[in-house]
Amino acid sequence: MKRRLKYRCWSCDREYSMTREIVGNPQIIVACPYCGKEGAVDLDPFRDNTVSIYQSADAPAAPSIPTYTFPDVIPTSQPTDQDS
């Protein structure tokens, strides 16, 4: 799913927004348009862990698409060698 999210740069502390495809891996790398530094974003803390439970045995399979509840501004951190 594509989402436009707002990030706060770890280096220059400025806010910027960017559209990103959020699929599978909850860690993404974004580049600040102001200072050019890359920032690592861990989306796992924003994942919604709500599970749907159906009463009937004939109920449809639960969707495997994760949902997220994002704050207004997502903080970034300096990427490590493992993030690359």
Please render the helix and strand layout as text.
Layout: E1 2-8, E2 15-21, E3 27-31, E4 38-42, E5 47-48, E6 67-68, E7 74-75
Parallel strand pairs: 1-7
Antiparallel strand pairs: 1-2, 3-4, 5-6
Output the number of helix runs.
Answer: 0
Helix content: under 10%
- Main beta-sheet strand count, sense and barrel state: 3 strands, mixed
**Outline type:** elongated
The portion of residues forming beta strands comes to: 35-45%
List unreliable stretches of 5+ residues: none
Class based on secondary structure composition and strand pairing: mainly beta
SSE series = EEEEEEE
The number of strands is 7
Mean pLDDT: 83
Termini distance?
Answer: 22 Å
Main β-sheet, spatial strand arrangement: 2-1-7
Q: Gyration radius, to the nearest Å?
A: 16 Å
Describe the fold and architecture.
With 84 residues, the chain is an all-beta fold. Helix content is 0%, strand content 36%. The protein contains no helices and seven strands. It has strands spanning 2-8, 15-21, 27-31, 38-42, 47-48, 67-68, 74-75. The chain has a three-stranded mixed beta sheet, with no helix packed on it. A hairpin with a 6-residue loop joins strand 3 (27-31) and strand 4. The protein starts with a strand and ends in a 9-residue tail after the last strand.
